[in-house]
């Protein structure tokens, strides 16, 4: 049966047949993936069944290439496969430099301001974004002025196309006129390849206010008045702290002791704080600060009597004699709110600071070690006869005596063990009373 008669058979059970020459039973692949995109297969190989369908359409005559093979094409005449636009124009952007004028109302220094922007045209979807370079200390919001979107060209529903952008043209976007003066090399080459004439680049005009401001800054040198200026201290002495190790000598009073502290002086605002150094089992609450950060006057008594010292801290209106960095030195005793603190050592930053500013090089630490306190050995008083020996001994250990603890191990080991002794009564005669007494001899 010929191939034409086979195709005329009805597609019913018993009339179908199996192609003996067919080796592939999958559906033909007409698309392929290249660079993540689906493109049609240029040279599709037909299956034997497709050959029969083609032969039936052409009649009983045979197709020439089925007999003599496929005709070889000239490689010079072969054209590359066509790619979709979203693959061709992916990550291809036209960049233009432009500016616009912004009118300034109610200002004596300037009437208008010229702002420079970058216009980006994305060829993949014909969208446009406009951004302004951020200028330091400009005082105006800068950055992204128009987000990426299709911008309307007119009221008729048309949008801006890449042919509308060129050097020397003005475009109106949302009521603001942008004048294009330059573009990058790739944008120029693309426009020229599309047959569009690109004029030579122009220079961006300068902002008159910024030009005037730079001229003023060039002829004036602004410096701070002195090192006591608050702004100068903030810029140069911020986070610089002098650290001294000190002790509070209070042993001349009843129940006094030698307590260790750390004094930190902040150079940025001449404030200080005192932290207590806690020791193991010192019997004090672990409060971190002995004196919180504040400006401390040298003479606290030299304050007006009407000032409420009990509830408020003195300010600059009450006194101007505050502690500063020149009042501290290793080996010096300073009085802070009626307490004498001996500065016996400091850290490396403090040494370098005083060496550079005051020329001090002697930072020999002071030995403040004291002899350890020897506690007297507690002696047990003699037995007073009340109660048992163990009960009386408990009153020496605490004010509220506790019952003595029993030795459980001894009780378990010696349970049921009893020592038995035999004794004989000896009769002796006393020389004084001449009475006969009996004594036990063990």
Description:
Pfam families: DM10_dom (PF06565). It comes from Limulus polyphemus (Atlantic horseshoe crab). This is EF-hand domain-containing protein 1-like isoform X4. The protein is flat and about 155 Å long. Strands 6-5-4-3-8-7 form a 6-stranded antiparallel β-sheet, covered by helices on one side. A 6-stranded antiparallel β-sheet has the order 12-11-10-9-14-13, with helices on one face. Strands 1-2 form a two-stranded antiparallel ribbon. It has 442 residues and is α+β, with helices and mostly antiparallel strands. The longest helix is centred in the middle third of the chain and has 12 residues, at 208-219. Helices cover 17% and strands 25% of the residues. The chain has 10 helices and 16 strands.
Number of helices: 10
Q: Uncertain runs with pLDDT below 50, 5 residues or more? A: none
The largest sheet is:
6 strands, antiparallel
Structural class: alpha+beta
Estimated radius of gyration? 52 Å
Calculate the terminal CA-CA distance, rounded to whole Å. Answer: 142 Å
Quantity of strands, as a count: 16
Could you give the order of strands across the largest sheet?
A: 6-5-4-3-8-7
In N-to-C order, the SSE pattern is: HEEHHHEEEEEEHHHEEEEEEHHHEE
Helical residue percent?
A: 10-25%
Question: Which percent range describes the beta-strand content?
Answer: 15-25%
**Mean of all residue-level pLDDT scores:** 80
State the shape.
flat
Keywords: Cell projection, Cytoplasm, Cytoskeleton, Repeat
Organism: Limulus polyphemus
Main location: cytoplasm
InterPro entries: DM10_dom (IPR006602), EFHC1/EFHC2/EFHB (IPR040193)
